[in-house]
Structures are given as structure tokens and as C-alpha cells.
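Following up on my earlier thread - several people asked me to post the actual chain instead of describing it. Fair enough. Here it is, all 290 residues.
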Amino acid sequence: MSEAFSYQESDGVLAGPVRAPRNSARHLGAGSIHDDATAQKLGFRGGTVAGSLHMEQFPPLLIAAFGDDWQKHGGMSLYFKYATTDNEPVQAFVRRPGPGAQRTEIWMDDVNGNRVADGTASLGADAGSTVRARIAAMPTPEDIRILANVSAGDEGERVPTRIEPTALESRLAVITEPLPAYTDAALFGAPIATPALQVQVLRPAERSILPRNSDFGVGLFGAIELQLLAGPVLVGHDYETQAKVLAVGETPKTEYLYYEASLFEPGGRDAVLTMVMMLRFMKASSKLWR
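Reply from S.P.:
Thanks for posting it. Predicted structure:
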């Protein structure tokens, strides 16, 4: 667990402490982007730290910027630009929003000045977020092979999901920025989910829109948006989740898709949380591109 949180403010920018996130998914082993040998074969410096873990450095800054209500109705939308490896120091930044503003800029740099991620954060839903703006500006793909059977509009079934207390314990053992609400059940009636656990509770919906096989190769997060609509998300609570494909695209090195997953109370119609996820698949790791 990290040392006590403190931040500096200069010229309207809140700067969090420098932290060194752990590559807590490296145990997934060969075939995972978090594995050193697999990642290096694809041109990375080593097994990568998941972008969802980097998101955990922002909540204390966003509470400072927007107030405590951010824990119930807050959002952050990040596009990941530079992959870091285990224990590499990084720092989160938030531009203080002006009076009445509901959106602001956020970003993360490493200690060498590389831009790890940039994006926006909001209090309440934000149709013009960084991730949604990128989807709106996507070019038409020319050659899709890995994701040839995936199309915008594909929708999966609603499935049960929950965050077990043991999952929270695992995150708190290595988290960069703990919050009181992650452990104090008195604040919201139960401990609440960290950003990485919010991603985790929504990913079961992915399986029915993206039935993977060996042709997919190595995947990694390209962007993530989390938006609390009626939060927070509680640990040890039963939910349901459902996902829909928003777009499919390509770059010279990857194929990718964006999907939106929503979290509901069982049988409910109004989402508690939504996530827009960009998943990249490395062409060099798929036999469809050899």
C-alpha cells in the first residue's frame, strides 16, 4: 500500500505523488501482454502494467477537484499512449475545473516525460469525453481479419457479476492510492470498488460479444472510460452486466474494437456504471497476419 496521499497545485494543475504501480497481472504468463517474454517479442520493453491500474492514481485528485460527489457520479476517460512496466514511476495530473465546469483534462506522465495516458474526467455523464470523441473520429477500416466476425451493434446477453471481498483485498495489497471508502463500510454501506475492480466487474459481459480463439493473438487495453451514474459500485454485492460493440478499427500494428458495458442491479433497467473499453489485438501475434 502506498504512503499517505498528498498533492501539489501549480497554475491550476493538481499533481499527485509519484507512484510505482506493480504489474500485478504478470502471473498470467506466456501469451499475455503482461508477461515479459511475450511483450518483448512484440516490441515492448517488458510485461505491461494494465491501464486500469493506472486509473487508480486519479480518484484522490478528482475528489479534490470535484468534491466527494465524484465517488457517486464521477467519470474518467483515458487513452493509453505509452506502456509502462513493473514498478516504473508515474505521476497523475488533473487540471482544476473552472467554476461550474463538469469536465476537465487529466493525464499521466512517467518520470522521463513520456505521456502514459491522457483524457478527461467529469462529474456526471460526458458525451464529449476523450474516448467517445476518438470513436466519433475513427476512420473506416480497410482490412479486418482478427475481428472479422465482430460488428458495431453486436449485443451480448445480460450476465450476473460481483466483486468478491477477496478481490478487493488483493487490490489493496498493491494499490497506488487507497481511499477510505475502499475499506470503511460505514461510508456507503459496504466497501466500494477501486477503478480496476470496476473494470473487472464489467468484463464478464465481454465474453458473449467477443468469443476469442487462438487467432486473436495478444490483446491489451487501448483506452478505458468509467462513468458512475448511480454509484458507487459496492464490493460483495450482486449485479448484472451487458455489453454492446460500438466500433471496430485498425492501425498498422493492431486491430481494435470499442465496446460499452453497463452494470445493473439484478433485473434493473438503469445503469449504475458504464465502461467504454478499447481492446487492441497485435497483428504480429496472430497467425491471420503472418
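The longest helix spans residues 59-66. That should answer part of your original question.
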